[in-house]
Amino acid sequence: MKNVLTLNSISPVINDIFDSSYNVAADVKNPEGIILRSFKMHDYDLPETVLAVARAGAGVNNIPVDAYAEKGVVVFNTPGANANDNISLGATGGVAENENKEEGALTGQKTLVKAPKKQGNNVVVETAVSNGKDTHHILYTIYPNGEVDMRVAFNNSSEETRRVGITMQFAPGFEGMLYYAKGPRSNYIDRQRGSLLGWYRTSVDKMFEELSTPQTMGDRQGLRELTLRNNGKGLQLNMKVEGQLAFSLSHYDDQQFNYDVFYGGKHPYDLTRSEQVFAHFDFWQRGIGNHSCGGDSCLPQFKTPTGEHVVTMRFTPKTFEPKARFCADIVKNIKPMGIK
Fold it and tell me: Of 52, 53, 203, 232, which residue has the fewest beta carbons closer than 10 angstroms?
């Protein structure tokens, strides 16, 4: 029997995850694992039996990660695990009031389709998000070496959907970036002819664009590979893509763009920068168009395809010496090249 201690009230859905070989309770002795939400662990006397600590929620600011790492204790966080069932559905983006607004993001019911189970040496988990019309299936495969495959099957029922993709948040510090996609400037499904496919090196801050009225920005089409780097802690996260995907990264939450540019009056200096990194990984964004004669349209070939669209992302964490040059072995003598 494995003992798991809960330091906060945790959703009963965990009973579907832990089988009878686990004893999960708030009063267990000699726990091998701990699950918490907001409990502050900096002054907590950690039992010597603990092997792993998991926070049901985003971030680990209430956990002394470095101190636990020295003891060999693994710390996890689970963005969304502490969220309500009614969540913002980044997987569809939503139809805005007009093309200048992020307002109108669809919401959907998040469900655990299949509880985590062992498959060979791996662990697989299947979840789904549905808004009643479109359901998006996400299959996670977790490998013993720490790699995670995320297979996303998007379903879209309207060619007027503004965005079909997912949103993520990365921990503060992952500022350095190397990517293989179209660049070096932002480009979109109907604004990419002048952008070349190749390796580009930049930072999250440099992806911000000084628009007079800030909106979602920084899109790069044709993503094949992305590496984020935390030089301060010697951490690196590599992502490889199978399927069609575009991406953007920002220190500004899209919720700040929820206003009408004609009457809202926001400017770049009105925004609040976060240390957190907000990411979009999109199968498709509907074409920008040209707003000719006041219309809100784009050419038919740039409207959002309906049906199911599958993309797989593989995330690989690594460590490195903080003084090492950023992926010098990759970028040396590589130049951007165009494709037809």
Answer: 232
Closest CA to 329 of 337, 320, 338: 320
Does residue 58 register a pLDDT over 70?
no
Highest mean pLDDT among 2-6, 78-82, 197-201, 213-217: 197-201
End-to-end CA distance of the chain: 59
- Neighbouring CB atoms inside 10 A of 20's CB total 6
Give residue for tokens 């094949």.
224
CA 116, chain centre distance (Å):
20
Planar angle of CA 77, 81, 86, nearest 5 degrees? 150
Describe the chain by its helix, strand, coil percentages, rounded to 5.
10, 40, 50
Integer Cα distance of 64 and 50 in angstroms: 14
Helix, strand, or coil here: 181?
strand
Q: φ, ψ for residue 330 (rounded to 5)?
A: -95, -45
* Cβ atoms within 10 Å, residue 169: 15
Whether 121 and 144 have beta carbons less than 8 Å apart is answered as yes
d(CA 119, CA 143): 10
Q: What is d(CA 63, CA 52) in angstroms, rounded to the nearest whole number? A: 12
pTM to 2 decimal places: 0.68
Of 100, 256, 278, the closest CA to residue 172 belongs to 278
Question: What secondary structure, in 3-state letters, does 266-303 show?
Answer: CCHHHCCCCCCEEEEEEEEECCCCCCHHHCCCCCHHHC
At 48, list the tokens.
Answer: 């010597």
